[in-house]
Amino acid sequence: MQLRYSFRLYPDPGQQAALARAFGCARVVFNDAVRAREDARKAQQPFPKAAELSKRLITEAKCTVERCWLGEVSAVVLQQSLRDVETAYRNYFASLKGDRKGPTIGRPRFKSRKDARQSIRFTANARWNITGNGRLSLPKVGAVKVKWSRTLPTTPSSVTVIKDAAGRYYASYVIDTDPAADARRMPETDRTIGIDLGLTHFAVLSDGTKIDSPRFLRRAEKKLKKTQRELSRKQKGSKNRAKARLKVARAHATVADARREFHHQLSTRLISENQGIAVEDLSVAGLARTRLAKSVHDAGWASFISMLKYKAARYGRTLVTIDRFTPTSQTCSTCGVKDGPKPLHVREWTCSACGTVHDRDINAAINVKTAAGLAVSACGAPVRPGAIPAQSEETGSHGLPTQPRAA
């Protein structure tokens, strides 16, 4: 399967200027390609082919006064921008035809230099490489300092350089991993668990364990309000407003990073300790339209479940998702009698049939595990197969493993 490895970059001022030029040139080529496609659509003419767009928008444009500065960046970056346009239109038409799963996506739009996130991609043709001292050498940018938080399992064939809203730079690699080798790293276990996700507690397990909700956004609200208030008082277009905007973005990035780290640690722990895991198929988009929207987004259930899915597939575990309409909170886990709906403030209830006193969340977690039917075979592996995540369309990796040195 394919996984993404991201590492923090620390470009010097000259390299930041070179990356800014590359971001800008890639954005211009993308917008020119979208404009050419839209002009052809309005004129009811066939869309221009990728080769024609490459010749007109890159090769010939470099010889003009208006676009001569396109030659200041790597041509691979510009070609990858055209490929991004092709992919965007391909996904758009597949969505219109119903061939693409998920919500309908709109027609590709123009990019803005004020977009919060900017990225460029270098493939093997760009002759980028990792130097002997652990720096990332990019064409027409230079050798950029990298913070290697872990080693790359294989040699990547492409690297994506990203600048986020907080002004941080990252190098992102798509790596091909071997699920069989990853599965051997996990300890053998025959445990199965059911998980009930909530707001009072982030997760309640069927064995009675309750995991508190960190509520990263709620705890940071005071600081976020202060930075947002300072931003609103700055004059639009001023340098002080740009500094204030960056301050707000960094405050939000701190919250997002803490939440992501919590999800990674918890999902890795559950995957390593259990052979089978059962969760509910929650409608996060629907819950986000209720009065609990801020708390739902703060919990980040969708992100957590997606981590469980790909880690279960990577390490040979089983993840079963039960239907969201299963009455897990209304059914007695002891006798199986459905006792009817209960308001949210009722955290404990007594079964009218058998008289068992239930903790609402623990009872729901047990019912989630029961509904998933996580039977364990004689060899210790669950009978039901796990979900396999979709593969990334971005260029993967190849060749023999090479380990970069620490910067």
Task: Itemize the secondary structure elements and their pairings.
Layout: E1 2-10, H1 13-42, H2 50-59, H3 75-97, E2 118-123, E3 129-130, E4 136-138, E5 142-147, E6 158-163, E7 169-176, H4 179-185, E8 192-197, E9 201-205, E10 210-212, H5 216-232, H6 239-273, E11 276-280, H7 284-287, H8 293-299, H9 301-314, E12 318-322, E13 348-350, E14 357-359, H10 360-372
Parallel strand pairs: 8-11, 11-12
Antiparallel strand pairs: 1-5, 1-7, 2-6, 3-4, 4-5, 6-7, 8-9, 9-10, 13-14
Please sum up the structure shown:
The chain has 407 residues and is an alpha+beta fold.
Q: Would you mind describing this structure in some detail?
A:
This protein is α+β, with helices and mostly antiparallel strands and 407 residues long. 39% of the residues lie in helices and 17% in strands. It has helices spanning 13-42, 50-59, 75-97, 179-185, 216-232, 239-273, 284-287, 293-299, 301-314, 360-372; strands at 2-10, 118-123, 129-130, 136-138, 142-147, 158-163, 169-176, 192-197, 201-205, 210-212, 276-280, 318-322, 348-350, 357-359. It has a seven-stranded antiparallel sheet. A five-stranded mixed sheet has the order 10-9-8-11-12, with helices on both faces. A hairpin with a 5-residue loop joins strand 3 and strand 4 (136-138). Helix 2 (50-59) runs antiparallel to helix 3 and helix 5 packs antiparallel against helix 6 (239-273). Mean pLDDT is 88; it is low at 375-407.
Judging from the principal axes of the Cα atoms, what is the shape? elongated
Poorly predicted residue ranges: 375-407
The largest β sheet comes out as: 7 strands, antiparallel
Oligomer: single chain
Distance between the termini: 28 Å
Number of helices: 10
Give the overall average pLDDT.
88
Order of neighbouring strands in the sheet with most strands: 2-6-7-1-5-4-3
Order of helices and strands: EHHHEEEEEEHEEEHHEHHHEEEH
Helix content: 25-40%
Structural class: alpha+beta
Any idea what the radius of gyration is?
A: 25 Å
Number of strands: 14
Beta-strand percentage range: 15-25%
